[in-house]
Design brief:
One of its GO terms (molecular function) is catalytic activity. Helix content is 36%, strand content 17%. It has 597 residues and is an alpha+beta fold. Among the domains are: 248 residues, Endonuclease/exonuclease/phosphatase (Deoxyribonuclease I, Chain A), CATH 3.60.10.10; 70 residues, no CATH class. It has an 8-stranded mixed sheet with strand order 14-15-1-2-5-4-3-16, with no helix packed on it. The protein has a 6-stranded mixed sheet with strand order 6-7-8-9-13-10. The chain is elongated.
């Protein structure tokens, strides 16, 4: 199985360099010395996962370690763990076989031997005996050199560069004790394809970055990557990891997810989308209307129409072109082995210029984004929609034991909310199936669906399980609204709720306190927007009757009422009790079920 196509290790790479790394199409990237702040898992805009073990209040001196997992294998990632400021790990399960990727950053020569011993002890403790395959990637700050002729150690191969130092001997001793192969030493390559680090000015070049594996046949085709310019003094080390079967088979048996509808792209082709829907619903006119047919029709039509892009003149972005030209020049200079003094100075200046222009571009994009939000008269909360989604990386069970396993975290959440919201009341068996009111309910009209409710619904909200939002329903205009009204009238007539309305995507939002405590999260249900529209229609019709029967004391959540008088009265009572020294008790109650799942 081709478990991980490319495992790339790199050093001193900021977030703005990830676009350069993705040109290699890796499945897992390990980064050291990122100097990022915070710790946790984040889902990026492209669907990939970023696990960041950066600086925190508890460990302010850490230089940062990162795992970037591609979206194709994120569903097979079981857990991320931080073992120390210098060691993190990632567990991946592929076709029943467990693989543990460990990323490590060893102390430099500035540290004492005692720190080195602590590092290797922590690294040994991080190796999970339950995982069948273990691969360690990282900067070990050690030179192993070339294997000597009289050496009988099977864990190091015959190929390499340079001379071995004391730290290199310690690394080899660690590999022998834990039965780890130094994989790149078994591959014969040109001398220029072994070094992974160069000193400032390019005078010295050493091999100090390695990929270690418990199985020599697992980590294959170890190579040094030079074609990606990332502005680092280290070069990337890439390995192809294979475990018996192919990853493509996993992709075929993977559960299919509904296609995501790009609303922005759909708005560009709105006339075509409207025409296609009209033709589709004309064919379905003789069938009984149903929400399931509506969802399927909209989803398929949107997917087909979104592929038809309208040709527009591309704006020439001179800023991107300048950065691209500078990166190309930096790449050309980097490939030269024997640089002149002028070329070394030029390489240094080009490297600085690329970084400055990237930062300037990032600032400009942030500024343009803020201006666009202000022009739309949106608040600061609008910016949160475009942030990366933070994932729960650790959770405590009922006994207080921490777990980082994704399946166990899901089970903890499921058990907690099932216990919290499950009803203990018996199901009634003598419900009246027929309404005592003999009057027929007036049918919903297309105008009522659109003007009274759909236009009043909030825009750009997260979709439910059907992946259809109110924005998409509005783009469908007359064909969709007419079919929606027919569906709602059929529901009123049959008195049966569609099965798809009984499902909801539940997400939990962190409130405050310890992130590992499930009680510090609040559940939010993402319901189908067509279901929300139907309930709005019912509420609109019953609103006047409900308001007329509400007591006068009820001021909250009522149109035309204010709680100012109630607050003023409460303040008066508090002042009088303080003035006359009278006992007063004020009860403020909160409930765990204030958020409906």
């Amino acid at each position: 199985m081709k478990g991980i196509q490319n495992t790339v290790y790199c050093r001193r790479v900021r977030t703005d360099c990830l676009s350069s790394l993705t040109l290699l199409a890796p499945n897992v990237i390990g980064l050291c010395e990122t100097y990022r702040k915070g710790e946790g898992s984040v889902e990026l805009s492209d669907g990939s996962w970023l696990y960041d073990a950066g600086r925190t209040e508890e460990s302010p001196n850490t230089k940062g370690l990162v795992f970037l997992v591609h979206k194709d294998i994120k569903d097979y990632t079981e857990s991320f763990d931080k073992h120390s400021d210098r060691i993190i790990s990632c567990k991946i399960k592929l076709q029943g076989e467990s693989l543990q990727l460990i990323e490590a950053y060893a102390p430099t020569t500035e540290y004492d031997d005692a720190d080195i011993e602590i590092f290797y002890e922590e690294l040994e403790n991080a190796m999970d005996p339950k995982c069948k395959y273990k691969v360690i990637i990282g900067d070990f700050n050690s030179k192993i050199g070339v294997k000597e002729a009289d050496e009988e150690k099977e864990w190091i191969g015959p190929f390499g560069i340079g001379e071995r130092n004391e730290r290199g001997e310690r690394l080899i001793d660690f590999c022998v004790a834990n039965k780890l192969y130094i994989t790149i030493s078994f591959y014969q390559k040109p001398t220029s394809r072994y070094w992974t680090w160069e000193s400032p000015g390019g005078r010295y070049k050493n091999q100090i970055d390695f990929i270690l594996s418990t199985d020599k046949s697992v980590a294959q085709n170890i190579e040094i990557i030079t074609k990606v310019g990332i502005g680092s003094d280290h070069r990337m080390v890439r390995s192809r990891i294979c475990i018996n079967k192919r990853l493509e088979r996993l992709k075929r048996i993977k559960r299919k997810k509904p296609p995501r509808i790009d609303v922005r792209q759909l708005e560009k082709v709105a006339p075509i989308f409207l025409l296609e829907l009209q033709n589709r619903f004309e064919v379905l006119a003789k069938e009984t209307p149903s929400i399931e047919i509506l969802n399927e029709s909209i989803t398929k039509t949107a997917a087909e129409v979104s592929e038809k892009r309208i040709e527009t003149e591309e704006e020439v972005n001179t800023e991107d072109k300048v950065i691209e030209q500078l990166e190309q020049r930096r790449k050309e200079l980097r490939k030269k082995d024997n640089k002149t003094r002028a070329e070394r100075v030029e390489y240094s200046e080009v490297n600085k210029t690329v970084k400055k222009k990237r930062r300037a571009r990032a600032r400009r994009k942030r500024k343009d984004f803020v201006i666009r939000i202000l022009q739309q008269r949106k608040g600061p909360e609008e910016t949160h929609k475009y942030k990366s989604k933070r994932k729960i990386s650790c959770m405590k069970d009922n006994d207080g034991h921490k777990t980082t396993d994704r399946e166990e975290i899901l089970e903890i959440c499921k058990s907690f909310y099932k216990t919290l919201y499950e009803s203990t009341l018996p199901t009634p068996t003598n419900c009246e199936k027929e309404s005592p009111d003999s009057d027929e309910v007036p049918p919903f009209t297309t105008n009522e669906v659109k003007s009274c409710c759909l236009l009043a619904m909030s825009k750009k909200k997260a979709p439910g399980p059907d992946d259809i939002t109110s924005d998409i329903l509005l783009l469908g205009d007359e064909p969709v609204l007419k079919y929606l009204a027919s569906c709602f009238n059929e529901i009123l007539k049959s008195r049966k709720i569609p099965a798809c309305w009984e499902e909801a995507k539940i997400i939990i939002l962190f409130k405050k306190g310890a992130p590992g405590d499930i009680k510090n999260y609040g559940p939010i249900s993402l319901l189908s927007h067509s279901y929300k529209l139907f309930t709005r229609l019912l509420q609109k019709r019953m609103e006047r009757i409900l308001d007329e029967n509400q007591p006068r004391d009820q001021a909250g959540f009522r149109k035309g009422y204010s709680t100012t008088d109630h607050i003023y009265t409460l303040n008066q009572v508090i002042e009088e009790s303080n003035e006359y020294n009278l006992p007063l008790c004020v009860v403020l109650s909160t409930t765990k079920k204030h958020l409906t799942p």
